[in-house]
Amino acid sequence: MSRKAAVVALTALAPISWGSTYFVTTEFLPPDRPLFTGLMRALPAGLLLLALTRKLPRGAWWWKSAVLGALNIGAFFPLLFLAAYRLPGGVAAVVGSVGPLFVVGLAALLLGERPAVRTLLTAIAAAFGVSLVVLKAGAAFDTGGVLAGLLSSLSMSAGVVLTKRWGRPEGVGALALTGWQLTAGGLIILPIAFLAEGAPPALTGTNLAGYAYLAFGNTAISYFLWFRGIERLSASSVTLLGPLSPVTAAIVGWAALGQALGAVQLLGMVIAFGATLAGQLGPRTPKEAGQVVATGTGTGLFSLAERNGQKVSMDLEGSGVRR
After folding, report:
1. Which runs of E-coded beta strand occur in the chain?
2. Number of domains in the chain
3. Which of 46, 95, 96, 99 has its CA 20 to 30 A from that of 84?
4. Is the pLDDT of residue 20 over 80?
5. Which tens digit of pLDDT belongs to each residue from 29-87?
6. What's the angle, vertex CA 162, arms to CA 64 and CA 45, rounded to 5?
7. What does the pLDDT look like over 229-252, one tens digit per residue?
8. 76 inside domain
9. Does residue 262 lie within any of the structural domains?
10. What is the rounded average pLDDT of the residues 270-281?
11. Is 302 helix (H, G, I), strand (E, B) or coil?
12. Sign of torsion, CA 102 319 65 52?
């Protein structure tokens, strides 16, 4: 396996992990606490990475970390929750899939980068594949929900552009930078969660196990791999790893929850996966000057579903797959 292929494979573990969040959230966590779930994902993971690296920001990196944490986590999660509550999961996922186009536009404005036609076409194909996987007939649209979904994509896209532009300080690894962002984002979500949802719910052992997986495997490790991939791979390599998340969510939903997969959804998976593979055919250069990664369908998407007649919170990680 080549060095690039190894980095791609490790980076791909992040969206694959995020695709499993739907199953964990619906089966292991208390219902109707999406903001608390976001808090439990971000803050413990960030504090763990701070404890492991024993590095704090210095100088300008205090405010830079706060900005990146707000864009990638603190603003991103609440906006996604709002969109998911007001939109069907499939619609929210499709709205989120415009993220790559936002990144291309922001890169042109902030970095003077000319967008590659092949990347644009592949991103559109990936979004189309995702829509086939998650979008249901007769899906309703809500103006406020669509706006929140677009703002969430814009927030994450701006975070990716600034992450690429600022890099990281000398002598600081990707693990420490990930910890700074997760901690900052978690601290932003903290007051919002308590104001919107009140005191934390009583937690069972099953709940704690679910939160432990989300915080450490699904967030601390996955975000580290994702940010590491952004640093080491070209834009064309990372852009279309995002569709692996909804494809994984659909497969897990079929295997573990008995959700049906029709011919249209299978076709969408093939298109999305094909776009992902096509995204790896670009230059082999580990870092391409001035290029920015478009984040595919995003790294988190919360929606609602009906389970046993009750509405429960579901983090679909960009999939929009409904139970």
Report:
1. 302-307, 310-315
2. 1
3. 46
4. yes
5. 888 888 898 899 999 999 999 999 999 999 999 999 999 999 989 998 788 777 666 66
6. 60
7. 878 876 556 667 877 877 887 888
8. yes
9. yes
10. 83
11. strand
12. negative
The whole domain housing 282 covers 3-294
CA distances from 311 to 33, 199, 322 (A): 11, 20, 12
What is the DSSP-derived secondary structure letter of residue 236? H
Phi-psi region for residue 312, left (φ > 0), alpha (ψ -120 to 50) or beta? beta
R_g of the chain, CA atoms, integer Å: 18
Task: Kindly state whether residue 302 falls inside one of the protein's structural domains.
Answer: no
Tell me the whole-structure pTM to 2 decimals: 0.79
How far apart are the C-alpha atoms of 233 and 99, rounded to whole Å? Answer: 18
One DSSP character per residue, 86-113 reads HS-HHHHHHHHTTHHHHHHHHHHHHH-P
Q: Which residues contact 301 (CB under 8 A, 6 or more apart)?
A: 80, 84, 89, 92, 93, 96, 315, 316, 317, 318, 319, 320
Residue 304 lies in a domain: no
